[in-house]
Amino acid sequence: MGPLVVLAYSGGLDTSAIVPWLKEHYDARVLCFAADVGQGQGELDGLEAKAVQSGAVGCIVEDLRERFVRDFIFPTLKSGAVYSREYLLGTAMARPAIAAAQVAVARDANAHLLAHGCTGKGNDQVRFELTYGCLAPDLGVIAPWREWEFKGREDLLGYLAERGIAVDVSPAKPYSRDRNLWHCSHEGGVLEDPSVAPPDDLFLLTKHPADAPDTAQDVKIEFEAGEPVAVDGVPLGPVALIEHLNAVAGEHGVGRADVVEDRLVGMKSRGVYETPGGTLLRTAHRELEQIVLDRRTLNLKDQLAPRYADLLYEGRWWTTEREALDALVSTTQTNVSGEIELRLFKGHVTVLSRMSPHSLYSARHATFEADEAFDHADAGPFIRLFGLQERLASEQRAAKTSQEQALV
Question: Would strands 4-8 and 338-345 be described as parallel, antiparallel, or unpaired?
């Protein structure tokens, strides 16, 4: 009996071909694993039957949506991480969640090997395999795209046709997409030319801003310790909250990003991302932090956010570095509670109001009107001390100039 391989499975073209390929080249028994991270659109329907029809011994489908939000999305939201200035890391967050669950399935099944369908050009191979290396360094890894003879889609289609395995692939579906609760990404096709605008029929989650309602919609998002807990006064669980905000923001064309990013393997690539609910949450969270965190803490967070984004993009989730950053971020979030009101209109998000019991904003001190809270005379001594080093340096330069002139 051959080795048991647990394959990260989607039911698409690549993984459908991987199942028989593993059987033929490794004499393997293949157990497929698929994670529900909020793909929607019936992507998981009939997956077990499809896997068995491809030659797998079975297929396990696990609902990871709640875990994905609580353990990956919310920590990343609180960190403020954004990659390439605009990418809200939807795929990067999902991969360590999926890979960790795949490892758990492999342990339960006493499997010998792990496999994935990531290409040798992409980031996901790194994200999967770094997770494997951290959580299951004793298990071998097979990455067929780095081994097999196939060069592209036509080769795979021919291979599957010879074996009587049907897949739903056609020229009418030219894009490579990844969808979960947080976002939907689009790559390939005409998007490979960065001079070409994304076609209007590309988008799945967001309306074109020109087609969005002509009336603005206001949304209130409530946070507790940095995590969103309610919308418009209605408490919602993590999954339901994101689903609701996705629908609301998508209706108003909010959350599109067209990004040229730097892949880990060295090339630049272009992705078009839809993150409707995530865009609202990031905007609201940042605004709430702005009124409850002091200046130096905000500055520290702004310095660490790119580092958090990099480690997540690189697949370094299961590391001491990430745990340390999460501990620091959690400390900063203690008072990030309150409510932010946003206005959505034609693809734009505007902040309307900010409320928090921990707000550091004091109208008594900030007012331009007459007040008794701030003594203007205190500003003079403060400025004198604040600029002391600059004055000392200026005095030193003046003394040096005088000495040089005396020698002339």
Answer: unpaired
Non-local CB neighbours of 45 within 8 Å, separated by 6+ positions: none
Determine, yes or no, domain membership for 318: no
Phi, psi for 231 (deg, rounded to 5) = -130, 125
The verdict on 43 and 156 lying in the same domain is yes
Tens-digit pLDDT profile for residues 137-169: 999 999 999 999 998 888 999 999 999 998 876
**How many C-beta atoms surround the C-beta of residue 210 within 10 A?**
9
**Sign of the CA dihedral with 124 first, then 286, 239, and 272 last:** negative
Range(s) of the domain holding residue 269: 183-293+335-355
If asked whether residues 215 and 239 sit together in one domain, one would say yes
pLDDT of residue 42: 84
CA 27, CA 24: separation in Å to the nearest integer? 6
First to last CA, the chain: 97
For residues 346 and 289, membership in a common domain is answered with: yes
Angle formed by the axes of helices 13-26 and 153-162, to 10°?
A: 60
Q: Are strands 4-8 and 113-115 parallel, antiparallel or unpaired?
A: parallel
Counted domains in the chain:
3
Give the residue from 62, 123, 121, 60 showing the smallest Cα distance to 97: 62
Tally of CA atoms within 13 A in the half-sphere of 296 that contains its CB: 0
Q: Tokens representing 219?
A: 């949304």
Q: What is the pTM of this model?
A: 0.93
Q: What's the confidence (pLDDT) of residue 399?
A: 87
3-state secondary structure of 339: strand
pLDDT at 314: 98
Report angle CA 319, 324, 325 to the nearest 5 degrees.
100
Contact 147, 113 (CB under 8 A): no
Q: Which residues form the catalytic set?
A: 14, 95, 124, 176
- Statement to judge: residues 281 and 376 lie in one domain: no
| 54 token code pair | 């491809």
Q: Which residues of the chain have pLDDT under 70?
A: 169-174, 365-373
- Report yes or no on 240 lying in a domain: yes
Structure tokens at 120: 């040798």
Distance between CA atoms of residues 328 and 323, nearest Å? 9
